[in-house]
Amino acid sequence: MNHTILLVMQNFAGMGNLILKNLKHSGFDADFIFFDEVEKFRYKNIFHKVKTFYHKNILKDKNYKDNLRKEFRNKKLFEKAQLSKKYDTILVINAEYFQENFLLELSKHTNNFVGFHWDGIKRTPEIVSKISIFRKFYVFDKADNVYSNTEFLTNFYFDFPEENDQELKHNLLYIGTFVKERFKKILKIIEIFKKINKQTKIILVTLDKKVIKEHQNSSLDLRRSLLTYDENINLVKNSQVLLDLKLKEHNGLSFRFFEAMKYKKKLITDNSTVKEYDFFCPENIFVLESNNVEELQNFIEKPYTEINKSIFEKYSFTNWIKTITKNDE
To answer: Helix %, strand %, coil % for the chain, to 5?
Structure first.
């Protein structure tokens, strides 16, 4: 009989769909609850609608309708938890989206209630009170492995079958939200690539109209909405070198490291902790420091170095989910 698993998460950029795809490829009997795909809010009746109008426009309570939506979503999520069958494993990714009563109800439906957090806890401190609900709670930043039932676990690359349709279009690819503290580094690296006649594809997501107007005639690709993860992967496949710039709040390795590993792409990063990992290879990963940016050309022109097969397989989704579904009790 197949291992049954319930995946619970926000389906951010379609990542949930890809995790489900890989779960099924790996032989799991998988169901899901996605935070952003529960039944949409609707008014109970005309009086409910009038009351909302009164609070919003007369009492100037601008958050009233948003609070109604949150309350409705949480009610529907809790109902889904109550109706859940028994599972071998229930996996919750980024539990900060979910209320404690929902998580506690879900925990009754499995003996292996597991959390995975692919963000820094400093960025989501509200999650700390929820960690004890889980049998085991995995964190992707080693510095966050300080609670009684936490354990360190990196991100992964998907290993379901796909077409190897790579076609080099960009020498450098960066995809991220516009963050002021990272912007000077991006501009410096673009300048280096221009000097050596290399093409860059820099996609920045921002809703800041001032930023969009200021850079509308530049080579930057400024967008108002996130790419899906599928779109992201297609760009990765068609690029020679990937750029990863960390947030100051954590040192966890982003998915970019594992995409680079899977598709054999070189990587430029300012996350120096990558040197601590067994897959680190200076021919493949360039760690930015204050005085070495000019060495980028030499790094780019060297060929990619194949990494050991056992190390490569260690970071696959298949190996990752084996860790998640392992029940030591």
So the answer is: 45, 20, 40
Model pTM above 0.90: no
Domain CATH for 236: 3.40.50.2000
**Which CATH number fits the domain that encloses residue 33?**
3.40.50
Q: What is the pLDDT of residues 303-322, one digit of tens each?
A: 999 999 999 999 999 999 99
Say how many domains are in the chain.
2
Q: Are residues 196 and 258 in the same domain?
A: yes
Helix axes 229-237, 15-25, angle to 10 degrees: 80
* Alpha-carbon gap, residue 194 to 196, rounded angstroms: 5
Report the run of H or E that residue 300 belongs to, with start and end: helix 296-301
Residue found by looking up tokens 């197949």 in the block:
2
Amino acid at 89: T
Cβ neighbours of 121 (radius 10 Å): 23
Alpha helices (runs of H) in 108-178, residue ranges in sequence order:
none
State the alpha helices, DSSP H only, in 165-269: 180-195, 209-214, 229-237, 255-263
Percent above pLDDT 70 for the chain? 89
Q: What are the C-alpha distances in Å from 190 to residues 230, 287, 290, 296? A: 25, 16, 16, 11
Helical (H) or strand (E) element with 25: helix 15-25
